[in-house]
Amino acid sequence: MAGAAAEEQGGQPAVVFVLGGPGSGKGTQCSRLVESLGFCHLSAGDLLRTHMKSGSPDGQMVADMIKQGQIVPSEVTVNLLKDAMAADGGARFLIDGFPRNMENRDSFGTVMGYDCSGVLFFDCPEAVMERRLLSRNEGRTDDNIETIKRRFKVFVEQSMPVVDHYKELGKVIWADSDRSPDEIFAEIAPQVEKLVPAA
User: Fold this and answer.
1) How far apart are CA 178 and CA 131, in angstroms?
2) Could you tell me how far CA 131 lies from the centroid of its own chain?
3) Which CATH architecture does the domain made up of 13-193 adopt?
4) CA distance 129 to 21
5) For residue 56, what are the CA distances in angstroms to 53, 62, 190?
6) ∠ Cα 97 137 146 (to 5°)
7) For helices 181-195 and 26-37, what crossing angle results, to 10°?
8) Coil vs helix vs strand at 122
9) Share of the chain above pLDDT 90, in %
10) Is the pTM of this model over 0.70?
11) What pLDDT, on the 0 to 100 scale, is given for residue 36?
């Protein structure tokens, strides 16, 4: 449970894990939720990419793993998230692209001392995600067809069990993301606000 660590930080922050296959629209919708509801949005992928550019041996290891479409060690990601949350000091967080697997989830609970308030899951057909990724042209090393297909496979095998775990707990907001961004946002915003009301 949260215990003393949460009391020391002036109350446990509320965390919503945002999951979905690569290209399912997580970043787009997180930006909108930040703007309208005042969440702090932390992208596990962005934090890792910044870490990769740090020039440290640890950062180089992360770079090599991501290039191969592999999942980095849980403690690396969780500690980056913990530091970013502490630096922000906010009360409501959207953590995008995490946990990637059950080990990530367990590591988050161990390091942070509490679990998420819920999961926002974007369900999107693989063909649609592939088209989006190939057209976004952000210069990312993992936006090529071979790595994209590997990322889809890793997501289904390793991340879907996390979604299923929280679904059993009744903690998943399930969104069909093969629609316009406006339609998706209109559906999820009230549910997210209900899940984690503003203080």
Assistant:
1) 12
2) 21
3) 3-Layer(aba) Sandwich (3.40)
4) 7
5) 8, 10, 42
6) 70
7) 60
8) strand
9) 51
10) yes
11) 94
By CB neighbour count within 10 A (0-12 exposed, 13-18 middle, 19+ buried), where does 35 fall?
Answer: exposed
- Greater model confidence, 86 or 11: 86
Length of the chain: 199
Residues 15/93, Cβ–Cβ less than 8 Å: yes
Report the alpha-carbon distance of residue 81 to residue 47 in Å, rounded: 8
Tens of pLDDT, residues 165-175: 999 999 999 99
For the chain, the domains span: 13-193
Distance CA 6, CA 75 (A): 19
Structure confidence by residue, pLDDT tens digits, 67-101: 888 877 898 899 999 999 999 999 999 999 899 89
Question: Is the N-terminal amide bond of 99 cis, ω within 30° of 0?
Answer: yes
What is the C-alpha to C-alpha distance for residues 49 and 59, in angstroms, rounded to an integer? 8
Distance linking the first and last C-alpha atoms of the chain: 21
CB of 52 closer than 8 Å to CB of 152: no
Query: C-alpha angle 51/54/56, rounded to 5°?
Result: 100
* Token pair in block for residue 143: 């936006």
- In the chain, the amino acid numbered 158 is Q
Written as six digits, the tokens of 150 are 């590997």
* Averaged pLDDT of the chain: 86
- Residue 16 bridge partners (DSSP): 94, 118
Question: 189 near 81, Cβ under 8 Å?
Answer: no
Tokens of 186: 């209109």
